[in-house]
Amino acid sequence: MNIAVCAKTVVDVSEIKVNKSTNKPVLEGIPKKISDIDRNAVEEAIRLKEKLGGKISVITIGTPDSKEKMKELLAMGADEGVLIPPPEKNDYHLTSLLLAKAVEKMGNVDLVMCGEASIDMFSGQIGPRIAGILDWPQLTYAFKVEAEADKVKATRNMGDSMVVSESTYPALITVTKEINEPRLPSLMQILGSASKPIHEWGHADLGISDLSPKVETVELKGITMERKNVVFKDDIDEAVSELANRLAKDGVLGG
Amino acid sequence: MKMVMVYSDNEKTAKELLAKARGLADERKEKTVLITVGSGPAVWAKDMVKFGADRVIVTAKELENPKAEEAAQIISTVAEEEGEKVIMVSSTKTGKETAPRLAAKMGAGSASDVTKLWFEGDDLTAERVVYSGNAIAVVRFIQLPAVVTVPGKVFDPLAPDEGRTGEVVERDVPPGEHRSRVLSVEAMRSEGANVEDAEIIVSCGRGFKSSDDLKLINELAEALKGNTVGCSRPIAADLKWLSEDHWIGLSGHKVKPKLYVACGISGQIQHVAGMRDSGIIVAINKDPEAPIFKSADYGIVGDLYTVLPKFISAVKERM
Asked: In this predicted model, what pLDDT tens digit does every residue of A73-121 receive, in sequence order?
């Protein structure tokens, strides 16, 4: 079973502040990490490999500093990394095209796995787009995956309904955060990851010459939340009484 | 003929999207088309003319549970024939898995969960919330076609106009051969909570030690005459003490009640993203460093097992 997992390095959204004078989110200097749900996808791939054997490749579109984050996934149990530089201007069309072409270049991929969405943009575009480009079946929003040698079954959270779908290979699966608890690699695994390869593939290696996006972001506007931030502590009796009085005064008690 | 096309598997959202499509089409002297795939939507498709559709195209009535692969294939075939340039898709899970595949097949640009959509000159432009609610991205489509997904309640439906005329056609469009198959579909466990429409929500998180203790939350909700209980991700998704209709957050429901009371919720950004539009936010948490206090108007630092019974009495006294 050869599995390709798409993993994105993202800014840690919980660290983002909005610059109040420019009203822009400050994205520089924010710590980066592997998008949480992509880590679940890697964990699930490792579990499938433990059962069925095979190889796991992690594909990232990112700047060279993404390599450090990819090593965390290699330490968890992925076998190799593929790093593709981001195009000058990027959108979902180009990102999914680069990833799909990387899957094609690898050859013999049975399963592509993605998180349901990245935690920075939360679009959920990439998985189904890759499946569309490759014209492969897609099993999205999976919170349980059962793979056998010739087919894979996914139990999927489709909002109002729970859908169980099955496909032969090759196929693409997107997973939700509930599917598993990603493992923490041991020290030995962390040391061992240093010897695992991270290949760097250029856009030309993937046979893509037209790097024009279909969509561009023209502006990012910060959203600030103004709250009163009145905190009561110590004397609980006084605190609840004061809180109830304030809520009554604000007109939210008694409808 | 250029058109604005709407695809939704949900009747309510279909009407909301049609209202927006109608506005965009009128501005540019174009037509609106609603397309349905599968047996479910075929039932209400005909009614959509009075909600703003110039043309309703009903496809694949024989499919009870159309797959995204089939829906994307059918819609792209029809869209290419009809010349649709803007395709609006409901941000239901079905819509969200269909729209990107459709966009890939059509070589179209896309944007997810847009909250505003307009033409800036000839350029389709959209706004969407990114970075867990910290920013709004304004995106411009460099070219058409465009595929956007739109959440429920972003746009208001038009009042039904019985006099509006339009055509309803059934089309036989091949859904294609795809290797996946649906083995079963069952309704997700639901306790019927409607958090998205609630005016007062009392919400619980990991600060609760057992599911029995959630009765404190119910009591407070009742005392506040709200009766709507929400929760953070672990309660619904991991512990399953409540069904997912209670789940508030980035991957759960987005709410905007007048009053939101967060009890034993630490306030991770993914939770805050679901409730940041609330009127007044109250936080009760024993950890004075919990990030929830930064998102709250009022907070009480204390053990919820001590605070809640006292707060319930204080509320009852004032009602």
From this structure: 999 999 999 999 999 999 999 999 999 999 999 999 999 999 999 999 9
B227 lies in some domain: yes
CATH of residue B41: 3.40.50.620
B187 Cβ partners below 8 Å, 6+ apart? A160, A161, A162
- What percent of chain A lies above the pLDDT cut of 70? 99
pLDDT at A157 over 80: yes
- CATH number where A104 lies: 3.40.50.620
ipTM of the complex, rounded to two decimals:
0.95
Total domain count for chain A?
A: 1
Residues of A in contact with B131 (CB under 8 A): 11, 13, 16, 25, 120-121
Range of the domain at B63: 3-171
For B71, the closest chain A residue by CA position comes to: A132
Among B293, B297, B314, select the one facing A241 at the smallest CB separation.
B314
Domain shared by B28 and B132, yes or no: yes
Disruptive mutation site among B101, B186, B190, B220 for chain A (greatest number of A CBs within 10 Å): B101
Q: What average pLDDT does range A169-184 have in this prediction?
A: 97
Estimate the crossing angle of helix B304-318 against helix B215-223, to 10 degrees: 20
Mean pLDDT over B4-10 rounds to 96
pTM of the model: 0.94
DSSP reduced 3-state for B165: coil
Torsion, Cα B252 B258 B261 B266, to 10 degrees, reads: 50
DSSP state for residue B63 in the 8-state scheme: -
